[in-house]
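User: quick one - fold this with S-Hydroxy-Glutathione bound?
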Amino acid sequence: MAGEVVLLNSGPSPFALRVKIALAEKGMKYESKEEDLSNKSPLLLEMNPIIKKIPVLIHNGKPVCEPLIIVQYIDEVWNDKSPLLPSDPYQRAQARFWADFVDKKVYVASRKVWRPKVEEQEEGKKEYLETLKTMEGELGDKPYFGGENFGYVDISLIPFYSWFHAYKVLDNINFEAECPKIIAWAKRCMQKQTVAKNFPDQKKVYEFVAQTRKKDISA
Ligand code: GS8
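Assistant: Sure. Structure tokens for the protein plus S-Hydroxy-Glutathione:
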């Protein structure tokens, strides 16, 4: 029984995108509820009272929070189709390490590019590209991070690709030249329906990034 599945989502959130892709990989239907993060709904505050962030997956009325934990939950509950994590314990541990690296290093550096404080702008760009190059080293010549099949680490990283266009235009970052293997991998991921159909429009992400920066400057 699939039960009722609701996703609390907001705009072009890379974290909510992870959950959307994971649900699509499992062929799950769900209801998506858009949150205004400047005016969080009573439902969000009830379902995620500790962290108060999206995404939240509500399965049969019960919340699961934190994007990577949600993706693991989805993989465990709907385990009859498209495994996202490897079955071997050592390989699972490796996949979790790299997804954690995406959160702790890639995302943290990308935030410095997204909402830069003047003094850390250049440093932020450098750091972001370094983290992507580290991911490139881990990818090596494999088609996906886990090998032949799209999986957990791909899901953790691919949402950040939706912001590359904005950073290219606004910050002159030449991702193609700096990390060609990541670009080739991202294009491979984009050939998958489960990824492409959930990807936000690059122009909308660009507008979102430009607007957030404007607000930060005037704040
Ligand atoms: C990731 C989610 C996140 O940052 C978590 O706690 O779930 N590790 C995190 N969500 C953002 C939107 S996506 O940029 C969010 O909900 N922000 C609201 C806020 O900070 O108040």
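One thing worth noting: Residues 5-77 form a domain with the Glutaredoxin fold (CATH 3.40.30.10).
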